[in-house]
Amino acid sequence: MKVGDLVQLSAYGRQRQFNSMYMDYPSQTGLIIGIVNNASYPYRVRWSKRRNDHHAVQGFHRRELKYATFNS
User: Fold this and answer.
1) Is 38 left (phi over 0), alpha (psi -120 to 50) or beta?
2) How far apart are CA 44 and CA 60, in angstroms?
3) Contact, 29 vs 6, CB < 8 A?
């Protein structure tokens, strides 16, 4: 994954209690806006829908994310 990719929470990411703040819209799309080298949760994602701006950008592990899919 790289900056600019559209992502969603993976099944693993949806199961994690820490990500419960995103579960109002579990299939929402996020944009990777940064990658922090040598961080435990390096992928910085800005989500399309969130409960408040405090969590507008959050760090994620690769396993918690998947590439976004769009059903027509």
Assistant:
1) left
2) 6
3) yes
Instruction: In the chain, count H helices and then E strands.
Output: 1, 5
pLDDT tens by residue, 37-72: 999 999 999 888 766 655 567 889 999 999 998 775
- 65 by Cβ neighbours in 10 Å (0-12 / 13-18 / 19+) ranks as buried
pTM above 0.85, yes or no: no
**Amino acid occupying residue 52:** N
DSSP 13: H
